[in-house]
Every structure is written in C-alpha cells, then in structure tokens.
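CpaF family protein, pasting as requested.
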Amino acid sequence: MSILKDKFITNRTEKENINKKIKETHVQPTEQEQNTAQDIIRKVSEQYAEELISKDISDISNQIASTVREYCNQLDLTYEEQKRIEKTVLSTVLGHGPIEPLLQDNDVSEIVVQKYDNIVYEKDGIIHKSEVSFVDENHLRTIINRIVQKAGRQINIMTPIVDARLEDGSRVNATIPPVSPDGATLTIRKFNNKALSGNDYLALGSLNRPMLYFLNACVRGRISIFVSGGTGTGKTTLLNMLSAYVPSNELIITIEDTCELKLQQPNVRRMEVRSSTSSDMLTVDQKILVRNALRQRPDRIILGETRDGSIVDLISAMSSGHDGSISTIHANDPENMCNVRIPILYSMNKDVNFSEKSIAMQISEAIQVIVQIKRFPDGSRKISQISCVEGLDENDKVKVVDIFRYDKNKKGFIATGYVPRSIIEKIRSQNIPFQESIFEVKRGEENA
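Structure tokens follow.
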C-alpha cells in the first residue's frame, strides 16, 4: 500500500513541477507539438467562431479551456506534452489570436497585419510571411479592440485610427474602414527591454571602434547630434545608446510620441505627446512640449523624433544654451536632411516665416554631427555615415562633410581623412581628452 501511495505522491509532485514550469516560462513547442496545436486551434476556432467574435473573452475562457483539454485527452501524449500544447492553444485562442506566438517570441521585433489573412513579421532583421491568419475580418477587429483596450482606447467608426502604447512599452497602430478600405490593419512594434550598448553595436558590426570613440566623445562634449534614417532602421535604439553617454550630473528632458527611451541617469524628466480623444481634451503636441521644456531648465533636450514644426524651437534651443541636445529624423542621407527635410519641417510651423538662407544658417549654427543609419538587405543595420556640418557653401546650402562612412564594396567602415576642427576644439573645451588619430585613412582606403 505504501508503494502505491509513494508512486501516487511522486506522480502528483511531478505534475505540480511540470505545471509550475509551464506556467512560469514561455513554451516553445516542438515541431510535432506545434502541428498538433495548430490542428486543435483550427477545430476550436471553428467550433467557437461566433462566440470569439461576439462575446467577451472572459465569458467563454473556461468553456474553451475545457474543450481544449478534451481534445488533448483524446491524443497519445505525455502529461508535459499535453500541458505544453494546452498553453500554446489557449494563448492563441484566448490571447491575441494567430499573432500570440509572435508576441511571445523575443526575436520578433515587429508584427504587421496587412489584412486578416495576410500577416508578416520582422525577425532578426528579416521580414517573414506568417503561415497563420485570423478567422475573418471580424476576428481581427475583435483582437484589435482587445489589444487597444489595454491602453484605454477603442477603435470604431468614430475613431478609425488608434495609435497607442501598451503597458510593456510596445507601440500599436490600428486602422479600420473607411480609413483602410480593404479591411482592418494592425502594426505592433514590440518594446525591447534590453538597451543596446556601444559594445553591442560593435558586436553587431553596426560601427567600428573609431566611430564609437568619436560618438562617445561628441555626446560627452555637448555636440548637438541628429540621428537620421528611414523607417525601421533603428534610429530610436541608436538614440538610446548615444543618450547613455550623457553625464549623470546633467538635467535631461526627453520628449517622445510614446516613451521608448531607457535612460539610466538620475535626473531625467520624461514627456509624452498626448492626442485629444474628446472635444474638451487638450492636444499636447511636440511643439508645445519642446517650448515647455525650455522653461524647465534642462541641460539637454532629447527629442525622440523630429517630425513637425517643433524643429524650429529645437534648432533654436540647440544654438542657445542647450547644445548637446539629440534627436532623430526621417531622411535619406545627411545632406538631404539638412537641405530638404528640415526646411520642409520649418514650413510646417505657421508661427514663423524664414527665408531659405536664414533656415540654412540656423541649421548650420545648431547641428554639428549627423549619424546616418541604414538597414541592409540581409537585415543588418549599420551606420552608413557620420558627417559634420561646416557652414554654408557658395550656393547658401548647408555644407555637409563625411567623417566616417560604410564602404559596401569593401564591406567595412572607413575614415575619410577629414578632421572636424571645430568639433574637436569644443570636445576638448569640456576637458575631454581626444585622439585625432581616429581620423587617419588606413592603407588601402585611400581610393575608397
């Protein structure tokens, strides 16, 4: 009798340990488990298709969980296999539908639902097409509302566009008809809890040591910097890395659409743009926050992304006591940023009216370094140029000179040989030692 009792206790203990392990960790199913789970997901989705669309998930969760267990009990599975499959199925059916596994996968950085039956995602820098899809348009809309409700938002005919930040920091954008006439869309840019360091960038091959040395010195030496690049190139991640070099005794104000920066300095005040969701709610845009920040005595302003007329106030701040401020911007290259993109943003500020030459002069006085980042076909992200602003040329355009660049033919980073004297002088004026040897052209790079 004691042998049977001991065996019962052992089995119960093993099951408790398995339950605890599966509850506390992310289940990465084997190929066989995933195939079994997908079969059960299909059956459950068909069986509860109407309820999944029309009812609150909490009202049917127990019933669905019971059905999933029944399906699993019919299969020849070990206890652990059954529990792993149950968790995989329930997280999909009761969580966020077919994108639940993508949300749980730490290597997936972005999920794009182009239509209910067309899902793509970015993993390790590469875009992949998902083999799964939502049941139909209504299923997708149900999941969208389930997601945005966590941020206190709702999507409907009155508010067909929702831009929100989830509790974990992930950014969500969703649309429904008539804004997106072909059906609802959903984009989730997942929040990365791990801030990349300069050494991480070196390990990833995104820059080399002389470039990192230069950028480190520029931030500590209060050089005003713009990070430029296209969508999804990693501008905010790079901005976060650069911001880590700001001395801890400085007063910093960050301004973002959705708070993503993870600064560790003790004196950081975070500001976030707020959109109006009702007629009696004040819209707080970038321009308001930048102007307000100037009244709060910051040593530096770090603007997550410059994308409207707030550029006028930021440029003014950079050239009048808030040097060392940093921001990102959408632009194809440093020259395009200075002579095309920023003038366009100036025109969006209806409170001012500057001539082209005046705008160019303001840019040349405020911005000193531009860091261009690009995403390459293999999914890697590299700093393609580090450039400096050297006044105006003979045509009154902002003169931009490359200091470092990536040579795609040689697949390596090179120094151009240009020595930015004014930047070096300013860095040294902050009592920061600086080695000019980083600008030397290496043998074999002369004609690169």
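Note for the archive: The CA atoms of residues 92 and 98 lie 6 Å apart.
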